[in-house]
Automatic annotation (TrEMBL):
This is Dynein regulatory complex protein 10. Residues 347-374 form a coiled coil. Its main location: cytoplasm. Residues 1-32 have a biased composition (Polar residues). InterPro entries: DRC10. The keyword Coiled coil applies. Component of the nexin-dynein regulatory complex (N-DRC), a key regulator of ciliary/flagellar motility which maintains the alignment and integrity of the distal axoneme and regulates microtubule sliding in motile axonemes. Keywords: Cell projection, Cilium, Coiled coil, Cytoplasm, Cytoskeleton, Flagellum. Transmembrane segments: none annotated. The lineage of its organism: Eukaryota, Metazoa, Ecdysozoa, Arthropoda, Hexapoda. Belongs to the DRC10 family. Residues 1-44 are annotated as: Disordered. It is found in: Cytoplasm, Cytoskeleton, Flagellum axoneme.
Amino acid sequence: MSQMDSQSSATLQSPSTYSDSSKTQSTRSLASSREEEDLTKDNSASPIDLECHIQAERITKILDEAIYKTKLAICLPIFVQEYRTLSSILKVEHMDDLTFIFEQYDNPLFSTSLLNVAAMEDIKAGDISLKNRLNPELGHLMYILNSYPQLRPKAEQLIAEIKEEHTPDNIHMRRKVPGLEYLLTLENFRDMMVKQMEMTAAEELEMKMHTRKLEASNGKLLEKIQEYTKCLKEENESFEKSMRIKSEMISKLEYELGILNRDADIFLKKKILDSDRQMVLATRSHLIKSEMLKEEEVESRSMYENLLKAHLIEEKNQRARRFKVETQLLSWLQKYDLEMGDKQLELDEFTDNYEDELKKCEELEKKLAEQDIEYIPLMEEREAEYQQELTEKMNRFMLEHAARVIQVAWREVLQNRAEKRRLKKLQKKMQAAAAKAAKK
């Protein structure tokens, strides 16, 4: 156990031997391009620039190692579940160490280290927190995993899948992964450091000047905002004053409305009394009319009986006349049947003559169609001239009508202005009378 503790402390203190393999493909391409530039410019570059370049490469290597180790730490729970993949890549000795560390981490009661003895005492006391279950052998575990570059593509693939799950589109489907935000911030910090180291002093100075200009423009904008706030306060105060005046006017008008409502109530009471009187008079007149109508009903019934007797007598006479008319119609129909045989011959002659006349008419229509070819264009010219005359007359009429409408409208405007002046004078008189009444 002491040997493993010493190995884990050594891994924490010393950089990894596989630091070159901890870079991504993009960082490798950048490093290769920079090395080519350095090889071509060894003679011309100054030692200070070369030293800065070397320090920048060292910083990027350290950051890449830290990023890869965080990725391994995030993927560690998944690697624990995938025992076959670890056993196929790792050696037997390292695999035994890993299983021992996993058992020690998962069940601290069976470990013999001093830290786990303290954890056992805390568990007996009732404190079962995660901090008491951490083991010092985790550093050694990270050293073992980092020493195998074959795990790198698997870890990169798992991290890529986790990042795809944590896109803003998959908010409902994603699961919580501890340490992912730390990894993202560390990668952003590494990109920012690379950009900052690639930036020249002139570019940095230019950025500072740009920020100073923005600060100056922000100061001017703040002054304008203060001026606008003052103007808004003044406008609000004037608006409040106008609202006070309007509220006073509203209170006065409400008082006048109360007086008018009282007068209206008195007037309505008078109207109700008058209507009651009229209802009493109407009921009396209705009773008198009902008696008169009853007398008229008796007289109308007697008249109705007399009319019925007269109508029955007339009905008998009408039936006798109807019988006579029907006999006459039968005799006329018999005569019609006899005469129709002679008339049919005449009708056949007339139809023959009609067909001859139709043939003559068709010939005449053909001649007229030939004449229409010359006649129609002449009539169209005449119709166009007639339409032109009509449009001129209509335009004249429209102008005269528009002039009359404008004159009438102007007279109405003058009348409306005069009426408004009269209404204003009446309102002033009413206000003066109300003011006098209020004073009294």
